[in-house]
Amino acid sequence: MHIFDLVDSVLFTIDVCRAVSPVELRRWSLTPEEAALVIAALGFKRETCIYLAGSHMYGGSSRMHPFTSLYPNLVTKETLLTHSELAPFRNFSSGILELDNFLLEFYHLAALDFIACATSDVFAMTDSGSQLSSLVSGFRTYYGDGHAPTLRPNKKRLATILLEISTIGWNTFEDRARKMIEEGQRVRVRGSGRSIYRQPRCPECMCRTQ
């Protein structure tokens, strides 16, 4: 099946679902359908290998079908590593409370996601409010020296585009999605209360002041 036929099927899936307002979308991660459309609009080929961090949040492979129909080369730490390779990052026991045990395992496994995302060719954020997204984007911005692209979809603008999904063509969606991502690449003055990890190379950053 041609990738544009697959895009049409994903567009249809979004069209028949309840429209999400810009205010609502800002509170949530992008869905697999939305993430797939943004990536496709940026010109990523079907054979692109994509690492998915925090895959459990989407609820399993069936929920990811709209994404994998467009990009089948999807991997996670669980599919890349064997059980024995993952074992050192799991099953902490030595008398630690159950909650502490869970948190230790969570953060150790999240460290694997951080390494994969921080060193990837391109990092695409689907949840701009998460700690992992903030740390990875900050690391790539600071150490990447402009050569570690991070895609930051503006969820409010994306929601506005998706509300018009039944009336605009693919070329229009593609153009608007690309402009949205391009504007997210600009280095801006860090606003009051904004994370230094997310914006470590702002013009006023003390580390870059001579």
Task: Describe this protein with a few key phrases.
210 residues, mainly alpha, two-stranded parallel sheet, two-stranded parallel ribbon, globular
Describe the protein's topology:
Blueprint: H1 3-16, H2 22-25, H3 32-41, E1 50-51, H4 65-68, E2 74-75, H5 77-80, H6 83-86, H7 98-118, E3 123-124, H8 131-144, E4 150-151, H9 155-163, H10 170-184
Parallel strand pairs: 1-2, 3-4
Strand ordering within the main sheet: 1-2
Compute the average pLDDT: 76
Portion of residues within helices: 40-55%
CA(first)-CA(last) distance: 55 Å
Report the structural category: mainly alpha
Biggest beta sheet summary: 2 strands, parallel
Radius of gyration: 19 Å
Description:
It contains 10 helices and 4 strands, in the order H-H-H-E-H-E-H-H-H-E-H-E-H-H. Helix 1 (3-16) crosses helix 3. The protein is mainly alpha-helical. A two-stranded parallel sheet has the order 1-2. It has a two-stranded parallel ribbon with strand order 3-4. 21% of the residues are buried.
Q: Care to give the gist of this entry?
A:
The protein has 210 residues and is mainly α. Helices cover 47% and strands 4% of the residues.
